[in-house]
Structures are given as C-alpha cells and as structure tokens.
Amino acid sequence: MVDDKKGKKGSISGVKGSKKTGQIQETGGVENLSSVEKAAGISKVGKALGIGNGKSTGQMSLAEREQILKMVEDEAKQFFKNSGIPKEKQEVIEQAVKMAIDTGLIDEPDDGKQ
Fold first, then answer.
1. How confident is the model over 13-68, as pLDDT tens digits?
2. Burial class (CB in 10 A: 0-12, 13-18, 19+), 11
3. Cβ–Cβ under 8 Å, residues 50 and 57
4. Are 47 and 60 in contact (CB under 8 A)?
5. CA atoms of 80 and 51, how far apart (whole Å)
6. What's CA 16's distance to the chain center, in Å?
7. Is the pLDDT of residue 80 over 80?
8. What pLDDT does residue 49 have?
9. What is the largest CA-CA distance in the chain?
C-alpha cells in the first residue's frame, strides 16, 4: 500500500508493503481436435446478374465504372485507416476488389454452363 504525504498533492513517500499473490491453476488438455482439410479452388467466376430475374442489369458506362472504383478507393481508405495492415497488403486487397468488380462487368455469352 502507498503512503501519501499529507499536504503535498500527488507525492508518494514510499511503498509500505504488497499483497501476496495466489496460485495459478493449470490449464486442461485440448481434446477432440480434427485436422483441417484443404479447400477446393475456384473453378470459374461468372458475370454479375440482376437480383431475382437472372438477367444482366445492363451495360455500365465508363463514367459509372470509374465512379464505383473511386468509391472502392474511398471506402478502402476509411476501412484501413486504423487497421494496422501494411500499406502493400492494403493495396493488394483494394486491387482485388476492383478486379472482382471488373470481372462482374465483363459481358460473356451465355452458353448454358455454370
């Protein structure tokens, strides 16, 4: 415990003693672990479809595309502001999101396969 000097604000004269600590209990063993299996890769990415009707939402103009990509940049700055993720990794993630958006905009002929 601490002995404050009376009359002097914030000064401490010394430590008179300390409390004794107790014992720490041991942790139990980990049981029933299963191995992690390898995940399958992605075989194909299709185009983005309209909600519910299964048809394309229409062509996007270059200006609209640029606006969406600018929104991605703005959101990335906000998201990564205090994340602690290195700048290089932030850029990789941002570019991956942009690529995913661009991939969804590619108009491929519908061959009936999925």
1. 777 777 888 888 888 887 887 887 888 887 777 766 655 554 555 677 788 888 99
2. exposed
3. yes
4. no
5. 30
6. 49
7. yes
8. 61
9. 88
d(CA 2, CA 17): 8
Q: Which amino acid is at 92?
A: V
Question: Mean pLDDT over residues 88-105, rounded?
Answer: 88
CA distances from 83 to 68, 69, 79, 88, 93 (A): 23, 21, 7, 13, 13
H or E stretch covering 100: helix 87-105
- Are 94 and 78 a contacting pair, CB within 8 Å? no
Name residue, tokens 């850029």. Answer: 91
User: Which phi and psi (to 5°) does residue 43 adopt?
Assistant: -90, -30
Place of tokens 């290089």: 88
Give me the torsion for CA of 74, 77, 78, 82, rounded to 10°. Answer: 180
